[in-house]
Amino acid sequence: MNHRRILVRAALHVVAATGLTLAAQAQKATHQLPITPATAAWGYYDAAAPPVLRIKSGETVEVHTLITSTPARLEGAGLPPAQVEPALREIVEKVTNKGPGGHILTGPIFVEGAEPGDVLEVRIHSVKLAIPYAYNAFGPKSGFIPEDFPYAKMRIIPLDEKKMVAYFAPGIEVPLRPFFGSMGVAPPAASGRVNSAPPGIHGGNLDNKELVAGTTLYLPVHAAGALFFVGDGHAGQGNGEVDITGLETSLQGKLQFIVRKDLHLTLPRAETPTAYISMGLNEDLTLAAKDAVREMINFLVTEKKLSRDDAYMLCSVAGDLNTTQVVDGTRGAHMIMPKSIFKKAPKAERK
Predict the structure, then answer these.
(1) Each residue's pLDDT tens digit, 175-217
(2) d(CA 308, CA 56)
(3) Is the N-terminal amide bond of 81 cis, ω within 30° of 0?
(4) What's the CA dihedral at 233, 288, 269, 106 to 10 degrees?
(5) Which residues lie closer than 8 Å to 206 by C-beta, 6 or more apart?
(6) Structure confidence by residue, pLDDT tens digits, 147-183
(7) Which of 38, 252, 329, 342 is buried most deeply by CB count within 10 Å?
């Protein structure tokens, strides 16, 4: 009898262990999402867009995104036709369902369990170059000071993945910090199809150069499944993105998605290994900056248990308020708060 009990218990342990292993494997599942005419969303974020991939919370997606341009423009700037990605040619030829914006986004990805009011946590595990070149361009009706540059110009810029630099010009090498300029979820259904250029409460074209590998982005969810879109790859960018483009290129990335029922945000937020980042978005840069400060105050009060007065003071003595971009219609500002200032309280002070 005892022998039988031992066998039964052993069998139950095996079943339980197997169940845990399968659950762990499910949580760690990795999906592939190439960019094709069937997986491209050209120029829009939309809650009505049909998902191109469905995943579970905790799963990872290896995604490919395309440069925001066309073969004709790239070749016109001097890029050899053989270096134009076949996927770009195919999408430009075949995709006719376009929004008002210019970005070729990949998605949307439906994350099971995500509902309006939740937060989608996007862990950026890796971001890699997909091609050995980028471009930078400006036009007579875009950029921050078009009155000074009333014409169009585009330059192809070689990228060196081994040295991680862009050869901007003889004697000028720009360090590379690749990131996706546009990462967002569907806006509220009532908003309809929104332009991919201005960022908003859905995230989108944030153009925040801090969103590199190792960073986590938190996005408020507005539609079932969240419906995540990604694109606008940058090999690097300066804060402000003043001529309207960074080092525009195609990227490959590994992103993990986690549904957070315990968080409730009104604006996107991010976290790097060394800092917390709040964001503000408004057509008026001053108002965007104020929102970034207010968002950081809210974070410090909620997560660090500071009083509002102390949080405001800490923002002034330790936070860095930056201009994210000034060229996308809705301007962006962000505040960076270093994690290193938060020390563990001495044992005598702990309760």
Answers:
(1) 999 999 999 999 999 999 999 999 999 999 999 999 999 999 9
(2) 37
(3) no
(4) -30
(5) 181, 182, 183, 184, 199, 268, 279, 324, 325, 332
(6) 999 999 999 999 999 999 999 999 999 999 999 999 9
(7) 252
Q: Is 180 helix (H, G, I), strand (E, B) or coil?
A: strand
In this structure, which amino acid lies at residue 212? V
Contacts of 21 (CB under 8 A, 6+ apart): none
Query: DSSP code of 240?
Result: B
Question: What is the CA 101 to chain-centroid distance, rounded?
Answer: 17
3-state secondary structure of 25: helix
Q: How far apart are CA 351 and CA 335, in angstroms?
A: 31
Pairing status of strand 60-65 against strand 44-45:
unpaired
**Helix and strand counts by DSSP (H, E) for the chain:** 5, 21
Alpha-carbon gap, residue 114 to 19, rounded angstroms = 24
Q: Torsions phi, psi of 37, nearest 5?
A: -55, -30
* Averaged pLDDT score across all residues of the chain: 93
Q: Which two tokens stand for residue 184?
A: 């967002």
- The beta-carbon contacts of 344-347 under 8 Å, at least 24 apart in sequence, are none
DSSP code of 267? S
How wide is the angle at C-alpha 175 spanned by C-alphas 173 and 178, nearest 5°?
A: 135
Hunting for tokens 């590998």 — which residue is that? 213
3-state secondary structure of 243: coil
